[in-house]
Every structure is written in C-alpha cells, then in structure tokens.
C-alpha cells in the first residue's frame, strides 16, 4: 500500500513503515476513481463528501488516523490550525480572560487530580469528557463529544485551550475541533500533569 500526500510530493509504503498489509482507501468521485484504477493502490486523504459513500464510515471519525499519518510525511499538504503550547505559555493566555480552558478528562479524574485555577472573569473552565469507557476500554467518540462542545461554544471563533492529563487526548480533541471549523484552538502539550508540575495554581473541582 502506498500513501501519498495531497500534493503528490510524498509517498511512503505503509507495509514498510507500519507493518500493515496492502489495502485500498479511495475518497474521490466515482469517475475520477475509475479513471485512476491503473495507478498503484493509494490511501488518499478525504477532501469531499464522497468519503462516506466510498468508505462506508463517518468522515469525522475515519479521517483522523489518516491525518495523523499524513503529518508524519515530508511535503504533506495537510495544514494544522491548532497549536501545541506548554503550560507556562497557556497560563498567560488564560489569565487574560479571553480564552476558555476545555478539559477533556473524565469527571472523576478531574475531581481526584484537581483543575486549574482560572480568573473569575472571562471564559473560564469547562469539562467535556472526550474518551468514554466501551467494551474494549476507553475510546474517543467525536460524533457524541463534538455536539456537547458546540452547545457551549457555538461561535467557531471561540478561543479554546484544550487540556487533558498528559497531552494525548487533548491532541485528538483539538483535531476534531479543527475539522469542525474552530479557528482559535490551542492544545496543552504537557497536560494537567505539566500544569501541576510547573507549580501553577490548582484546586479541587
């Protein structure tokens, strides 16, 4: 299987890098798809409404792993709107009151570990759990999570700092927000653990 960026400038054999078997994911319109059957099998990033028709999966859920892979390739045409920042930078933004802190940890996790102390004025602190427990452990269901965030922040220009415990779940959440059209998204790279480790103010939820 070969993966190509949107620009066609980067190609990588997945079987060589990820240990995956050959396969095919096509996301282009049918006529373009049929005209390109002579080409080597490709994994193409979704760029149109044809994604669900050809792949049989919701675009928002299925494209995230492809986008993560694309960002690892040199010359990829994938842009990223959200920015990863350490707690030492995030505190300055949050203290202005213009930025909201979106915590994607679970409620029990936040109660046990604590939450950031933010100014009483401004956008404040909001908890919307991203990863929920399923049959195979915790998983991220963006189709269920995103509407909860949109109910709190209907304006796609809302200024958001997304945080979790260690900067892993927050990256997945930031990608979903990016896909949903939010334009002012920052992600806490070191998570709440880094926040506490830096001696920044915390409190019990």
Automatic annotation (TrEMBL):
GO terms for molecular function: catalytic activity. It comes from the Eukaryota. Residues 143-204 form the Rhodanese domain. InterPro entries: Rhodanese-like_dom, Rhodanese-like_dom_sf, STR17/STR18/HARC1-like. Coiled coil: none annotated. PANTHER family: PROTEIN HIGH ARSENIC CONTENT 1, MITOCHONDRIAL-RELATED, THIOSULFATE SULFURTRANSFERASE 18. This is Rhodanese domain-containing protein.
